[in-house]
Every structure is written in structure tokens, then in C-alpha cells.
Amino acid sequence: MVLLRILFLFFGFSLNPKIHANENLVPYIPKIEVVRGSWGEVTIPEVKKVLDLTAKQLFPSTQKREWDSILVKQSNAGPMVLFERGQKGEYTVYLDTHGRYWCQYVFQFAHEIGHIICGYHKENQKHLWFEETICEVASLFALHSMSKEWKDFPPFPNLENYAEEFKSYAANRMKKNSFANPDKFQEWIRSNKDSLVEKPMDRSMHGKMATILVPYFKNDSFSWSACLYLNKTNNFASDRFDQYLNRWKKNCPLTGQKEFVQKISKVFGILLPE
């Protein structure tokens, strides 16, 4: 029943909550350039169209007006976003997919967008597991949002029915990674706190935590804008996890963002000071 409740929360609410911050702020989606490579039986314009739509599911929710452009390349080394920026400050993202497997494009690209929104930093190794979990949330969030976008405004008229594939892809990942007993999430965190730090790239752990966090991101209009301030610190190595979360909260300029961080902290059994 708990799993069904989580899935209901994930699929049953609107992904377009009211924006509480400056209503005059025009959402900005970065320019995305797709580099020719081993993409397989698909055209560059097709790939770009899907990546543009994926970006549309996440960037506007941050309410940030300007973003540096994103250069996307096909690579078996991916998916990843490089720490090194290009000559014009552009991000470089590697995707490890090809052809017209649109769910993979959305899932992988949304994950890397999550890193960009979180202000990913090479010094953040101690709490990288948490950022990776947020990026898993970004993928699930974008997949479901894309399902509605694709159904209402299909980028390829002959593939209108493909919209349900995104929702199914997300549902399958949540089912695969779900907790047998979500009520024991905090106990699981305490038992695995060392493993999370030692193995920050453990995708199965990210997936489990993401199933718990997704409803909080879906139902709070400040969620993605709060993530802009996640890594605005120089104390990655020395901070305990509770200190890391508290710095995140302090760095957020809006009350709604601070309240969102407080909600997430409570999920992990951490009560931050007011």
C-alpha cells in the first residue's frame, strides 16, 4: 500500500505548480548544441528536439534567467557532465545512447541537467551520493513531465502514442528500486551512511532514495530553485551531512526554498535549526 501511495503521489499531481517567486522572471532554457557522432539511425535535429524538450521540463522550474549553453556528445564514457567548461563557458555532456530510444535520452540528459542545476563541484565527494540522488529524481521528474508534454505537443506527429513510454519507463524504475518498507527509510540511511560516502556512485542506492524524494520535488514549487544553492560552500570535506544540509538551507535566499530544504532534511531524520 505504501508503494502504491508513493506511485500515486508521483503520477497523480500536476508538474506545473504555481511559481511563488518573482512572476516577472522569464524562465530561460539554455542553448543546446548536439555534436555529430555515433548516434546511429537518427538525425541531429531529432536528437536536439528531444533534448530541448527535456531541458524544458527542468530549467524553467529553477526560475534562473540565464544559463550557459550545453554541448552534447555521444560517448560510451557517458552519461556524464564534464567539470571542465568550454572556451565560452559551455557545459559538455556525454550521453551513452543512440538511435531513437527517446526514454534513454530523457533519462540520461535530465540526470546531467540535475548536476548543472545543483552547481556540481569536483570537491563534493563526501556528499556526492546526495547530489546523485537528486539527479535520479530529476530523471524521474522529467520522464513523467515529458509524457504529458509529448502527448499534448508531440514533436513527431507520427509518434504521439510514444508519450506513455516515458511514464512506463519511470514507473518501472520506481518499482524496481522501491523500498519494501519506506517507513524504515531513516533506519536504512543510518545503516548505510558509510557505504553512501564510500560508494557515491552506487546507482541502486540512488534509485531507492529517489523513490522516497520524488513526491517532495513534484509537490513543491521551490524544489528545483532550492537546488541552485546546494553546493554553494567550500566545506565539502569537513561538513557532516547535517551541516551540509544546514548550509544548503542558509544559502537559499527565499523562505519557500528554506522550507523545502527543511522538509528534505526531515525525511533523512535531521531537524535543522530555525
Structural description of this entry:
- The chain has 274 residues and is mostly helical.
- The chain has one domain: Orthogonal Bundle (Neutral Protease, domain 2), CATH 1.10.390.
- Helices cover 52% and strands 5% of the residues.
- The chain has eleven helices and four strands.
- The protein has a four-stranded mixed sheet, with helices on one face.
- Helix 2 (44-56) crosses helix 4 (102-117) and helix 5 packs antiparallel against helix 6 (163-177).
- The radius of gyration is 18 Å and the shape is globular.
- The two termini are 34 Å apart.
- The model is unreliable at 1-26 (pLDDT under 50).
Please name the defining characteristics of this protein.
274 residues, mainly alpha, Neutral Protease, domain 2, 4-stranded mixed β-sheet, disordered N terminus
Please name the CATH topology. Answer: Neutral Protease, domain 2
Number of domains as seen in the coordinates: 1
Q: Count of DSSP helices?
A: 11
Count of beta strands: 4
CATH class: Mainly Alpha
Mean pLDDT: 89
Spatial order of strands in the largest sheet: 1-2-4-3
Strand proportion: 5-15%
Order of helices and strands: HEHHEEEHHHHHHHH
Structural class: mainly alpha
Largest sheet data: 4 strands, mixed
Helix content: 40-55%
Low-confidence parts? 1-26
Principal-axis shape: globular
> CATH architecture, please?
Orthogonal Bundle
Distance between the termini: 34 Å
| Rounded radius of gyration (Å) | 18 Å
